Structure to design on (684 residues):
């Protein structure tokens, strides 16, 4: 099995901020999974003679963290000795679409040194040997195993200013060590324009199979077109609120003169969808919170204090 | 330090560790990692290792007090991954360890974990030192390895020079058993600390290692290790030559120290006919005895401290008034008195007589001192 040492790890500012927010608002320590992709970047200077005959320069693999899942507690997919529980991990991954591959995990613990602990090292080592979770690297023939570990900690002493420290590691199989890796934070702004070149959205607009060109021939409502239209409408409903599938036709062909208005309308409806999703999340969060405090009371009871 | 602020299941494990470990493990600091609950759940342990302490942070979780703890090792030991074993095929195995089946109701869990990790740390250090490319060090290690209980540690830091530290247990004798009636909880031992600088270059005469004798702290009352003079280290010497010689001298000195207990006991017994029965006496090591004495109506205590080198060194006396108190309400005491006529060749009864004669005069000075001190307060 090959080690694919990463040159660096990229993460967008909002993703990192949202992870830190989850960590700092949790009652205790937390852990979770990291999703993203790994790409092989071709060296900028290509030369004809390659003295070593190595086709891939090992230092040109870059991992991008595009999403995460915070469990809100500890020991969510491994046991007390750090052995990964594959069943529990599959349960956490159940609703993940393959686009967002598991590239590693993270741990956040308050008021502790910024060094991997005994269990964190074991979990990282164990996770990176799970071949069933490996995925292909973009622009390369190799596969990448989930070997990243992102550690969050806060200083031991109480401070007026909230400081959150973080450090990234990659498990190196040959030396059996956790190699520190640099983190590149990708923010919005002119300095980061180069990063958009490799941008790939993590929630793409669905590709609708339905024929929307609306030629006079297709006007007759056959069963087949009706079924495919209903299917497309359902897919559209997952990302925009109250947009008729037929209205997308206006974005193409001769009617595209009203393109701007039509697109703005689509974006507005997409925002409305996000808004209603947010409301739903808020409601369920309240329920989760209620359940959590109930669980905590039970745990306290078991542990023998009130 | 009290462990009351920890959740009860965690407190039970900490208390068990501190009271049952044969090592004198200490808690350095404790703090809370969870919000709002006010319960402590993390602490740093100072664990004796190679005549020094290693500091490990133990991280519990007050939110899940039944969950097993986690451990963070020192910043120098980032490559110490005790429970990870990778097979030849690259498959990953976690051998069964004290964390595998964690039972939070078992108070001995933490103790077992700490001792298991300490043992693994010892092998880790041994392995690291074995990999050092230094011929002299390799030779020294090979001759010393057979000694039971030897510990070694390699310090490596960016700014510190690389060196290897050994803690060599000396003397294969049970000092605890040699002292009648002693109540030492830990086995008393003497170690030689040997520090070799790591030299990767060949030199014809390697520099002498840094040597220091260290004993368990309680042994001080019988045998102060800092008074022992180490034999000189000759050029080209090795530990295998140095140690037997040192052990022989030390053994003799310890035998002497033990036999001196009886000499002190005879002296204390000889004091009784002169001063009356002692109020208090150290019956095991006979290092301290207190009598009640009076000069007219002035009543005072005589504290007598016997050095380990008694009778070569004379006892140190201190008087304490039973009638005069300072502003804090504590009895007034004299300075330590060690300048009075003395000869180690006197019989114990004569020693007692001469101390008594000295005190007849000295107690008048002390009475005057007490009255003056008390007067100043009014």
């Amino acid at each position: 099995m090959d080690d694919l040492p990463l040159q660096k790890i990229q993460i967008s500012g909002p993703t990192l901020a949202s992870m830190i927010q989850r960590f700092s608002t949790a009652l205790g320590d937390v852990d979770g999974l990291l999703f993203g992709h790994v790409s092989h970047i071709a060296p900028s200077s290509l030369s004809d003679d390659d003295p070593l005959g190595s086709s891939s320069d090992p230092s040109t693999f870059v991992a991008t963290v595009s999403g995460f899942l915070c469990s809100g507690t500890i020991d969510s997919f491994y046991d007390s000795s750090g052995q990964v529980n594959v069943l529990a991990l599959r349960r956490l991954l159940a609703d993940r679409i393959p686009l967002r591959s598991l590239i590693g995990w993270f741990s956040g613990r308050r008021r502790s040194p910024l060094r991997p602990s005994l269990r964190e090292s074991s979990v990282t080592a164990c996770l990176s040997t799970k071949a069933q979770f490996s995925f292909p690297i973009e622009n390369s023939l190799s596969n990448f195993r989930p070997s990243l570990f992102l550690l969050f900690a806060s200083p031991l002493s109480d401070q007026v200013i909230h400081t959150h420290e973080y450090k990234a590691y990659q498990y190196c199989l040959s030396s059996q060590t956790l190699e520190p890796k640099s983190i590149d934070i990708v923010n919005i702004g002119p300095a980061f324009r180069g990063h958009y070149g490799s941008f790939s959205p993590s929630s793409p607009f669905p590709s609708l199979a339905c024929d929307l060109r609306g030629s006079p021939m297709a006007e007759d409502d056959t069963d087949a077109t009706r079924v495919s239209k209903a299917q497309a409408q359902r897919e559209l409903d997952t990302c925009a609120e109250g947009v008729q599938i037929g209205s997308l036709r206006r974005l193409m062909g001769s009617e595209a003169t009203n393109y701007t208005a039509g697109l703005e309308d689509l974006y507005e409806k997409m925002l409305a969808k996000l808004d209603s999703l947010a409301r739903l999340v808020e409601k369920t969060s309240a329920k989760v919170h209620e359940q959590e405090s109930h669980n905590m009371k039970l745990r306290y009871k078991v542990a023998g204090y009130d | 330090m009290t462990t009351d602020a920890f959740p009860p299941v965690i407190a039970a494990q900490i208390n068990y560790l501190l009271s049952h470990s044969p090592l004198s493990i200490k808690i350095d600091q404790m703090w809370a990692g969870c919000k709002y609950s006010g319960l402590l759940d993390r602490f740093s342990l100072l664990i004796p290792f190679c005549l020094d302490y290693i500091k490990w942070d133990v991280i519990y979780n007050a939110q899940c007090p039944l969950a097993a703890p986690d451990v963070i090792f020192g910043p120098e030991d980032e490559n110490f991954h005790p429970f990870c074993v990778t097979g030849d095929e690259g498959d990953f195995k976690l051998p069964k360890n004290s964390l595998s089946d964690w039972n939070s109701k078992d108070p001995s869990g933490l103790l077992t974990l700490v001792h298991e990790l300490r043992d693994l740390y010892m092998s880790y250090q041994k392995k690291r030192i074995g990999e050092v490319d230094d011929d002299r060090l390799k030779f020294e290690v090979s001759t010393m390895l057979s000694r039971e209980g030897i510990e070694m540690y390699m310090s490596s830091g960016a700014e510190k020079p690389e060196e290897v530290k050994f803690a060599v247990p000396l003397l294969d004798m049970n000092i605890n058993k040699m002292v009648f009636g002693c109540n030492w909880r830990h086995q008393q031992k003497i170690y030689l600390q040997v520090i070799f600088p790591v030299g990767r270059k060949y030199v014809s005469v390697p520099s002498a290692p840094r040597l220091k004798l260290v004993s368990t702290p309680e042994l001080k009352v019988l045998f102060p290790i800092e008074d022992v003079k180490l034999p000189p280290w000759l050029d080209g010497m090795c530990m295998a030559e140095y140690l037997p010689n040192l052990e022989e001298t030390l053994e003799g000195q310890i035998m002497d120290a033990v036999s001196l207990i009886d000499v002190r006991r005879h002296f204390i017994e000889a004091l009784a006919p002169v001063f009356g029965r002692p109020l208090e006496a150290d019956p095991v090591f006979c290092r301290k005895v207190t009598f009640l004495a009076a000069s007219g109506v002035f009543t005072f205590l005589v504290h007598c401290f016997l050095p380990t080198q008694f009778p070569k060194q004379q006892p140190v006396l201190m008087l304490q008034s039973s009638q005069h108190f300072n502003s804090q309400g504590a009895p007034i005491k004299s300075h330590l008195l060690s300048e009075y006529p003395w000869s180690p060749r006197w019989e114990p009864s004569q020693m007692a007589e001469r101390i008594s004669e000295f005190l007849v005069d000295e107690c008048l000075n002390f009475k005057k001192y007490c009255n003056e001190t008390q007067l100043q307060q009014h």
